[in-house]
Every structure is written in C-alpha cells, then in structure tokens.
Amino acid sequence: MTLAARIELRLGTLDLQIELTVEPGEIVALLGPNGAGKSTVLRCLAGLEPIDDGRILLGGTAIDDPAANVFVEPEQRPIGFVFQDYVLFAHLSVLENVAYGLRARGVAKGEARERAGQWLERMNLTEYSSERPDSLSGGQAQRVALARALATNPRLLLLDEPLAALDVGTRAIVRRDLRRHLETFEGMRLIVTHDPVDAHALADRVVVLEAGRVAQAGTLAEVTAHPRTRYVADLVGVNLVAGEVVDGVLTTASGARVVIADAADGPTLASIRPHSVLVARGEASASSARNTWAGSIVDVDRLGERVRVVIDGELPLTAEITAAALDELRLGVGDRVHASVKATDIEVAPS
Predict the structure, then answer these.
(1) 225 and 261 share a domain?
(2) Which residues form the domain of 192?
(3) Strands 213-218, 239-246: parallel, antiparallel or unpaired by DSSP?
C-alpha cells in the first residue's frame, strides 16, 4: 500500500502546494521551519483539514478528492496519528486512552480494552494502565500516544514532532525507543521534525518544505551534499557521523577516528557543520585542529558566494568555503585535500 498525495490548500497565510509519496515500509521525515506547512500536511492526510484541490490516494483508493466529491472521515481512514503534545485525555486512564482510538472506530468496549492492554504490554507500560496521563514522564506519555495510534492497525502512521516535547537528556533515550518501535511497524511512516539529527536517526528519506512547497527531497546525505537553496543548505547542511565514543574519541564503523571535546562513552552521533571544516590542498594544514582526514574532492557545488565541497575519504565530509577561497586554492574535482575540524566545533548527542 503506497501513499500518493497532491495537496493544495490555503489556510491563513499558508499556501500549501505539494506532491508527496511514501512507499510501503518506508520512513519519510518532513523537515522545515515553523510555518512551512509540515503539520498541516499531516492534518490533511489524517482528514482533519480537507484539501481545496488535489487528491490523496492510499493504496490506490481516494480518501480525499474534491473534484470527485470524495472525503473519507478521519475515523474511517486506516491512519494513526501521534500529535506533538500527544493529546492524551487527562480524565481517562492510560488503558482507556489507548482503547479510545479503537472505540472511535466502533470496536466493542471489552475488545478495545483487551487490545489496548496488549499494546501496553508491548510498550512495557502495563504497570501504568490504571494511571492518569499527568503522572507519566514525557517518554512514557509518548509511548502511550504511539500505542493508541498503533492499536488501530493503521497502514499509515503520522508523527508530528514526536520528540519536541522532551528535554535534551530524555530525547536521546526516547529516540532510540521510538526507532525500535517504528522498525516493528510494517506500514508507511511519516514524521514531522525540524531536527536533522532526528531525521538521520529515524528516516529513510527526507522531504524539505519551504513556505508550503517542496524545496528538496532525497536521502539526508543527498540533500546535505547538494542543497538546492540557501534555506535548505542552512537547514540540513550538517555532516552527521555515527560511531562509538571511548575516552573522547569517536570511531566509525569504517574505522575513522574523530576526537570529541566533551562526550560520554557509548554510541554517539556527532554533528559537524560544513563551515567548520577547513580544507587544504595536498598535505595537512598547519592548523590547531585536532582532527585531520585525507580525501579527494568528488563534487563542487556553488551557492552564490559560498561553495560546497564534497570530500570522499577516510571520513566523507561536506565542507563549505567561500568562492574566493576556492579560486585561491584552485580546487577542483579529483584534487587530493586534507579536511580539518576542531574538536570544540563538533556537537554530539547519544544515539
């Protein structure tokens, strides 16, 4: 079952015109700033905002097609929705919250409670079944909202900023849990986020929205290496390096080593901004950077006065330099270079 949507909608100052597909088993992240239309896209797919024009097909069946006068009500769509603030009902127990989606779809009370209990067991939340939502931690509340969405056996799962309500310390732990739960779901998954780290950790592909339009789509690596607009470059222009940290050194799966200024031991995701990468022709430059890697230039992409230089080597990186620096160094595709980064310029988060 594939999602194929062409959505046109005017809502206040937002003029949304996008085309979007999600394949079976795929996790797609919608990236973009506030006001870009990310959450509105989810609301249109869920039937909470009827579209003005276009068509939304789920498995080849129209669930919203204004021209054909087709509109399937939200509770009749095989879609689960995890809202940004989870929208748990304060007056209901955790068990009743999870059963709510089933009851809304006409499932008998006893069966709904039984199936809700099974989902709480899967999420390791059985002991909280009689609790009220205000007694839960942020991570627990998210799992309850996810259980409620999955209990209805949806074919499409929508998640709106699922990690935004969490503090930094909790975020990494819940991200790992969320990734594990999403991997057990066989349907299509669409996640709204503004954080490239979340997109890297959770998604197969990203779609970047800018002012109600798709600015770019592809894998995060493709979008990072070849941003088509300055906005996209600023939004996702970051090198993400995964590995294991031991004694302040991150080692990647390929054996590349990255010195980190301050990071606890364990699985880690390091973020290196392209403008923090110093590029020198030939031998390593005489800089104070604690990290230097050899490589070759495989692509040069000009964006006005700034230039993206894609380097393939022991640690593949994208650097950003000025057009003047590119001309001064006389750099081109195939040139051997060294890339350097200060340890203090690298941001890290547990993965």
Answers:
(1) no
(2) 3-236
(3) unpaired
Element (H, E) at 299: strand 291-303
Stated as kind and residue range, the H or E segment containing 10 is strand 3-11
Residue 79: phi and psi, rounded to 5, are -130, 135
* Position 110 confidence tier, pLDDT thresholds 50, 70, 90: very high
Distance CA 206, CA 31 (A): 7
Q: Which two tokens stand for residue 155?
A: 């074919």
- Shared domain check, 244 and 223: no
**Rounded Cα–Cα distance for residues 236 and 85 (Å):** 24
At residue 288 the predicted structure's pLDDT band, cuts being 50, 70 and 90, is low
In sequence order, the 6+-apart residues with CB closer than 8 A to the CB of 156 are 3, 22, 45, 58, 78, 79, 80, 187, 188, 189, 190
Q: What is the mean pLDDT of residues 131-138?
A: 91
57 and 196, same domain (yes or no): yes
Domain limit, last residue, from 236, 270, 305: 236
CA nearest to 235, candidates 196, 198, 263: 196
* Boundary residue ending a domain (236, 270, 291): 236
Residues 119 and 146 sit within 8 Å (Cβ to Cβ): no
**Cβ pair 163, 198 in contact under 8 A:** yes
pLDDT tens per residue, range 209-268: 999 999 999 988 888 777 777 778 777 778 888 899 999 999 999 999 999 988 888 888
Span 12-38, mean pLDDT? 94
User: 280 with 133, same domain?
Assistant: no
Same domain, 145 and 270: no
Q: Over 60: is that where the pLDDT of 285 sits?
A: no
pLDDT higher than 70, residue 169: no
Distance CA 118, CA 57 (A): 31
8 Å CB contact between 291 and 342: yes
Whether residue 279 contacts residue 326, with contact meaning beta carbons closer than 8 Å, is answered with no
